[in-house]
Amino acid sequence: MTMIRGAAAITGAASGIGRALAVEFARRGCDLALADRDEAELKALAAEIGPTRKVSVHRVDVSKPDDITQFAAEATAAHPSLGIVVNNAGVALLGSFEEIDQAQMEWLFDINFWGVVHGTRAFLPHLKTMAEAHIINISSIFGIIAPPGQSAYAAAKFAVRGFSESVRHELAVAGSPVKLSVVHPGGVATSIARSSRTGVGVTDNARRAQMIERFENAAKTTPKDAALRIIKGIERNEPRILIGNDARFMDLLQRFRPGTYWAPLQRRLEKIAKGA
Fold first, then answer.
1. What is the DSSP track for 69-101?
2. Is this structure's pTM higher than 0.90?
3. 8 A C-beta contact, residue 119 and residue 62
4. Rounded to an integer, what is the distance from CA 175 to the centroid of its chain?
């Protein structure tokens, strides 16, 4: 069991799951190192948490390794008891493989995959000095299944899963005090769809609007509930944390039909989109 105590570092903390985690960690007595590109929202969050907790705010672009290295150095200096790191920052990209160009795919990978890798690398030396510590890497249910139109996002999230599982096994073999969990949220009511970029080859604006509407209709889990589920997973040292009934269903379907899950899943998603 990992105790929720000391201090936690969170990327992508200005909104969504990252923000909800910051609030819940603070309620449990954790100090916080909060990172995001949106410094104004970070300051607002720090004010919301209040003076009872020590909160440091860091403007960080996780696509830039030097930003992450500096964040880790500043966060551990400000919070010597830091024992929890959440690599949460992420973006989305709408379009089929042929509709997105290489630059867009690399942009997404720099954030969704390399941001996780660099965050893990930057904090790991400090975490290994703690009596107990925990890394939480946010993947997605699209790190378990891969729908059409999500080639870049699914590829990055599958990569987060593979990277995280391998590092977790390395830490276990070494007898490290550091635990690692990989998180697979289903539909969580965040702004990721509305803030997504569109492939350069996508010319149909109606399709973007439809995608956003479908996501928001299907996203039944609140960020707070997602944060509470992650905290429970940390406390239990769960290696894989699934969030939402939709994620649990898709995980089971993929296990039973690993090569043919998409047809039945598509039918189910269409019913959900129609409110059936």
1. HHHHHHHHHH-TTEEEEEE-----EES-GGGS-
2. yes
3. yes
4. 26
66-91 per-position pLDDT tens digit: 999 999 999 999 999 999 999 999 99
Closest listed residue to residue 221, CA positions, set 20, 13, 8, 14? 20
Q: Strand pairing partners for 180?
A: 135
Query: Does 153 qualify as catalytic in the annotation?
Result: yes
Residue type, 258: P
Residues with Cβ within 8 Å of 8's Cβ and at least 6 positions away in sequence, in order, are 21, 22, 25, 30, 31, 32, 33, 82, 83, 84, 85, 86
Nearest residue to 234 via CA among 129, 135, 128, 117? 135
| The residue type at 87 | N
> Reduced to 3 states, what is the DSSP secondary structure of residue 113?
coil
31-36 and 7-11 beta bridge pairing: parallel
Give, for 36, the enclosing helix (H) or strand (E).
strand 31-36
Helices (H), the chain: 16-27, 39-49, 65-78, 102-112, 114-127, 151-173, 205-218, 223-235, 245-256, 262-273
pLDDT tens for each residue of 218-268: 657 899 999 999 999 999 999 999 999 889 999 999 999 999 999 998 888
- Measured CA to CA, the distance from residue 65 to residue 87 in angstroms comes to 13
Q: Looking at the DSSP assignment, which residues form a beta bridge with residue 182?
A: 137, 240
Residue with tokens 């705010």: 57
- DSSP, collapsed to helix, strand or coil, labels residue 137 as strand
Considering 153, 158, 163, 215, which one is annotated as catalytic? 153
Nearest to 49 by CA among 87, 21, 90, 12: 21
